[in-house]
Task: inverse folding
């Protein structure tokens, strides 16, 4: 099946640091990538959608200047949490999908972000 | 607004039995519905997609039904095994299928005891 690699799997850093998370589709061209946030025992909350070569679209309530998304190629999207604070601590998961909007999403294994 | 509800209580069953998980939705008529499996600390893994014109879909020990009248999907695992223990999520496309965005249920945690 389709493989999506997310890196790093875990980050622990001080408040005020910016953290970059990478999401790569290894064996298919990901026209669209999605970024989610998940709190313990809760469902995935969509943060933003990125399409290769265009600006990401953010869901209501998600600060675009806080969560910078770049989708420079068909296999790579990055999420940068800028000036992270303890409230940004969470599990961040990316997913990738091919051309057709009704295709399943293929998820990375998530990044556990802990801000001290 | 669209709502998805899954049984938030954990489901505990004995190995070999059939597990049945429920996904209900309101204010919407989706063209398809998806089921995912998520293990602790991992990303979800796609299992099955069922379209609105399909009543039932099977994949090995998995079976999904889609009742558009009841606005409900049932997810069955037959001959369950301890390795099936995980959280199972149902997902629907957002209304007007906004570029394939999905809305996820909160998931049902399944525990299969040997």
Result:
């Amino acid at each position: 099946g389709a493989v999506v690699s997310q890196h790093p799997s875990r980050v622990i850093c001080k408040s005020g640091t910016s953290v970059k998370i990478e999401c790569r589709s290894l064996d298919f061209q990901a026209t669209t990538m999605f970024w989610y946030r998940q709190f313990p025992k809760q469902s995935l909350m969509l943060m933003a959608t990125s399409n290769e070569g265009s600006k990401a679209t953010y869901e209501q309530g998600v600060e675009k200047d806080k969560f910078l998304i770049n989708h420079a190629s068909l296999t790579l999207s990055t999420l940068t949490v800028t000036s992270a604070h303890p409230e940004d601590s969470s599990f961040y998961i990316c997913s990738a999908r091919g051309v057709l909007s009704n295709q399943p999403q293929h998820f990375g294994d998530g990044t556990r972000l802990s801000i001290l | 607004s669209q709502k998805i509800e899954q049984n938030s209580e954990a489901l505990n069953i004995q190995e070999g039995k059939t597990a049945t998980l429920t996904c209900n939705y309101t204010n919407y008529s989706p063209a398809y519905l998806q089921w995912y499996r998520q293990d602790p600390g991992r990303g979800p893994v796609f299992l099955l997609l069922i379209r609105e014109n399909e009543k039932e879909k099977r994949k090995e020990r998995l079976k999904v039904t889609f009742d558009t009248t009841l606005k409900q999907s049932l997810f069955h695992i037959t001959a369950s095994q301890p390795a099936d223990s995980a959280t199972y999520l149902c997902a629907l496309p957002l209304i007007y299928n906004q570029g394939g965005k999905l809305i996820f249920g909160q998931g049902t945690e399944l525990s299969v005891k040997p």
